[in-house]
């Protein structure tokens, strides 16, 4: 009697777990394949995003490093050749320089003020330290005397495993909620009921995106990227619109208020620039 194939045995065992129904068995197998694929894609996206962030930081560090060295060289020698090097490096540094540092550096060179130039060196040095700290947070190294650095190192390992799992879970949760809500909306009796349900669904979608964005920034420890002045009202209005399901006119009013608030914030930010 031939020995049963290992994969056949596994398949039969899984089929029995599915109650002997081939359609249920195929559903669970398909769900497993989709889950693994989604997990792989999310993990790849997170890894690529981190690599891109590190690449940008390294590029900025390289530019800041050359510029800082040339300014220090000029402050030491104070001749035309070293000053010419600063102008050349400044021209190569536009893509990396922050607006405050660029403005201060430009004014100091324009007025030939060495005191301001020394302040620029301090600002550049501080910016370099901030960039290096951000890089360490993205890809932390383990240090013998650094408890917090070691903590971030191990947290990074845990993050690589669990963050894709969390995002995969939320993706499936969102898909199932969409399917369930759309099914319910289709069977609602009036257009008004369907409209208010769609608004609540859209608000829930915004709320989920904000949660995922917040999780991503918290795991990356890049808290400054969370613009609470813009995100906060969206979060509050989304929750209000979900609570106000069945009250179409109130939901529309909330969206108008949110839209007006966002326009006001954009106008204030533009005027400050």
TrEMBL record:
Transmembrane segments: 22-39, 161-186, 198-215, 235-264
Domain of life: Bacteria
UniProt keyword Transmembrane, yes or no: yes
Keywords carried by this UniProt record: Membrane, Transmembrane, Transmembrane helix
Name of this protein: Uncharacterized protein
Species this protein is from: Collibacillus ludicampi
